[in-house]
Amino acid sequence: MEILYAALALGGMGLLFGILLTVASKVFAVPGNPQRDAVREVLPGANCGGCGFPGCDGCADAIASGKAPVNACPVGGAEVAAKVAKIMGVEAVDTGVKKVATVLCQGDIEHCGNKFNYTGIQDCVAASLVSDGNRMCKYACLGLGTCVRACPFDAIHIDERLKIAVVDEEKCQSCGKCVAACPKHVLELLPARQPVQLRCRAAERGKLVSDNCKIGCIGCTRCEKACKFGAITMVNNLPVIDREKCRGCMMCAEACPTGALTADWDHRKEAVIDKDVCIGCGMCKRTCQFEAVAGEVRHPHDITDACTGCGACAEKCPKKCITMRVRNHVRDANAKVGTTPEKVLEAKETK
User: Fold this and answer.
1) What is the reported pLDDT for 29?
2) Please, where are the H alpha helices in 157-276?
3) CB–CB of 71/58 below 8 Å?
4) 32 has pLDDT over 80
5) Coil, strand or helix: which one is 3?
6) Which is more confidently placed, 70 or 310?
7) Which residue, among 257, 322, 259, has the nearest Cα to 295 in the 3D structure?
8) DSSP 3-state assignment of 281?
9) Contact status, residue 308 vs residue 195, Cβ threshold 8 Å
10) CA terminus-to-terminus distance, the chain
11) Which helix (H) or strand (E) holds 240?
């Protein structure tokens, strides 16, 4: 009988507490935010923290309260930003340029050796604490996979043969976790498919760089001199590209003696003249800084294989008869107007 009384007492207490909790939840309930809930619903749910807030809930709170823009989620991209903008009643801000994690180093084991054999914890942070890492160049990727473990999207891996990080641009969601995790700062979020990129951070004198890495920037300034548009300046022995001035001619990458400057050669452009429309005004010929336009006044002009694809001629053409297309052959610097075999030989000897 005592057990029965105890059970009834516990049951009564449970019922009483349940009623009290129900009343309290009604009295002290915090009104919900339908706008915030709608924003949270369209976010991808990756909880990667790439937005700078604690997960998607934090991001939704920040957007709804006006502390973050509608395109705060790097994973969702333009599509999610448009949905969030509609919910918030504002216009979506779409730059149209996807950013991806980029490895600013080409110092794999074929180009940059080890100064000692590291056998410690297989982690870049741990390795960097030992004499600033085991690579000859102190700016080089250590290739121990800290970035791989930080990526929630399986968008980065270590090349087992070359021991360097490689990013899968299709999988990369621009969350920036790998960038934050890298102790050597060789990863950076940059716009995908740039015409040229500097893939080196070794801000040291040329000989020291070349002694450590065969493909590092030696600060020779050839790229700066090759640029006809003033888009490159040297800062701390490294070229800095002004993207507003860069025309994508890729002449800087052509001039780079080590390959530290890489170019998107597969998408390099060339100019094409519609001879049925061209009146031979010569504006394109006067504009071209690469001696790639041939032709006489009042006669249709031609674009030679020396064209760099900068597009300046197309912009200046008064008849708009010049278009730009992706070239299907390698640029021939020797095809410049007025080039003779003697000049070609002289250029080769100078180079």
Assistant:
1) 57
2) 177-181, 206-212, 222-226, 251-255
3) no
4) no
5) helix
6) 310
7) 322
8) coil
9) no
10) 106
11) strand 238-241
Q: Which of 109, 93, 152, 149 is nearest to 125 (CA)?
A: 149
How would residue 343 be classed by pLDDT, with cut points 50, 70 and 90?
Answer: very low
Strand partners, 191: 99
Token pair, residue 261, equals: 């400057």
Is the per-residue pLDDT at 9 higher than 80? Answer: no
**For the purposes of burial, counting CB atoms within 10 Å of the CB of 73, is it exposed (0-12), middle (13-18) or buried (19 or more)?**
buried
pLDDT digit string, tens, across residues 41-78 = 888 888 888 888 888 988 988 888 888 888 888 888 88
CA–CA dist 211, 98 (Å, integer): 36
Q: CB under 8 Å to 270, separation ≥6 — which residues?
A: 303, 307, 309, 324, 325, 326, 327, 331
Give the span between the Cα atoms of 287 and 293, in whole angstroms: 9
CB 254 within 8 A of CB 299: no
Nearest by Cα to 165 from 101, 99, 103, 100: 103
What is the tens place of the pLDDT at every residue in 182-197?
999 999 999 888 999 9
Helix axes 77-88, 34-42, angle to 10 degrees: 170
Q: How many CB atoms lie within 10 A of CB 153?
A: 16
Greater confidence (4 vs 278) lies with 278
Asked if residues 217 and 200 have their Cβ atoms less than 8 Å apart, the reply is yes
Exposure of 116 in the CB half-sphere (CA atoms within 13 A):
11
